Amino acid sequence: MPTQKSAGVAAVLSFFISGLGQIYNGHFFKGIMLIIIQLINGALTAILIGYIFLPIVWLFAIIDAYRSANKINARNNRRFR
Prior knowledge:
This protein has helices at 7-16, 20-24, 28-44, 50-79. By secondary structure, it is an all-alpha fold. The chain crosses the membrane at residues 31-61. This is TM2 domain-containing protein.
């Protein structure tokens, strides 16, 4: 049986480093892309636009990691009933 993913752990990982929760969930490409986007947003804070996009992408990463973990768990539960 595939392992269950903790939605809380996924969200906390993305809280600290955007994209880390996605990597925990097995979505490696999405996680790496979020990390790269946040690095770019960090650099863009020098011209102020990063201050707008940095928190938006950060919140997206947290919510997406949480929801993805719940979807993975629901799919695993349906498959092995």
